[in-house]
UniProtKB/TrEMBL annotation:
This is Cobalt transporter. It comes from Plantactinospora soyae. The lineage of its organism: Bacteria, Bacillati, Actinomycetota, Actinomycetes, Micromonosporales. The keyword Transmembrane helix applies. The chain crosses the membrane at residues 7-29, 70-92, 104-122, 142-160, 172-193, 213-234. Residues 243-268 are annotated as: Disordered. Keywords: Membrane, Transmembrane, Transmembrane helix. Pfam families: CbtA.
Length: 268
């Protein structure tokens, strides 16, 4: 298995590239919806009685600056997520019952996408500007972060459910146990955490739907990119020739590991 530094650098690189790709997707799919939402907010603001103050003076960053900063933000976020994925890979590699490095990386990336993105999104979908009560922003932020943690716990519970049955159990029973463990934690989290219904009745439903799809699509692009790039980088390193001393019978030492690029999986 490569050193932690080597794996970490591959994760950071995969995250950076995937973050920039996700930023490009967000620029074309999400920015037009944000502009439309801001226009609605501006219209509502200017329709209110004037107080003699210009609310544009509160803007710290212009819209052009925000658009340019989008790529910086997604790039840095991708680097952080790539680093976390690489760290998780090093810690959990021997517990993943596959000899293929690329498959292990994709499993971890898929689990992160399901637990940290899809589960929170179904409870707390993203909202565009002009939607949401500023007085509840701290409560909404705290609830969302807590649900991210619980979403990852749900994925972990699903993995435990899959492994709880005996190895010779039918596949459908192991799959049912995994889904049951995942749903148990998810349903409890959805029930315990508060709900927020703050979308104005007159806000365009089509705009809200398109914005949420663009937000979810950005995360899908990001995690799909991280998973595929990280798996490709790991597989590429595993195919490099490895020096090994031949055995008397002609079979080189560690030939199986060199071909697969991984250590033998841990026994259950």
């Amino acid at each position: 298995m490569p050193s932690f530094l080597s794996v970490l650098l591959r994760g950071l690189l995969a995250g950076l590239v995937a973050g920039l790709i996700a930023g490009t997707f967000a620029y074309f799919a999400g920015e037009p919806r944000i502009d439309a939402a801001i226009a609605i907010e501006e219209q509502a603001t200017h329709s209110e009685p004037t107080t003699g103050e210009d609310h544009h003076e509160d803007e710290l960053v212009s819209r052009d600056g925000q658009r340019a900063g989008l790529f910086l933000a997604t790039g840095l976020f991708g680097v952080a997520m790539g680093g976390m994925l690489a760290t998780a890979y090093v810690l959990l590699r021997r517990r993943l019952r596959t000899r293929d490095d690329g498959r292990a990386a994709l499993l971890l990336a898929g689990g992160a996408l399901l637990g940290a993105v899809v589960v929170p999104f179904l409870k707390y979908p993203a909202n565009p500007p002009a939607v949401g009560n500023p007085d509840t922003i701290n409560q909404r932020t705290g609830s969302y972060l807590l649900l991210v943690v619980l979403g990852l716990v749900a994925v972990w519970a699903g993995a435990l459910g899959h492994r709880a049955l005996r190895p010779d159990a039918p596949d459908w029973q192991r799959a049912a146990a995994a889904v049951g463990g995942f749903l148990l934690v998810t349903v409890v989290a959805y029930t315990v955490l508060p709900s927020f219904h703050e979308v104005p009745d007159d806000f365009p439903a089509a705009l809200l739907w398109d914005f949420r799809l663009a937000s979810l699509g950005t995360q899908l692009v990001l995690w799909t990119g991280i998973g595929l790039l990280f798996a490709a980088l790991l597989s590429w390193s595993g195919r490099r020739p490895t020096a090994a001393a031949p055995l008397p019978g002609g079979e080189p030492v560690g030939a199986d590991e060199a071909r697969d690029g991984v250590d033998a999986p841990a026994r259950p």
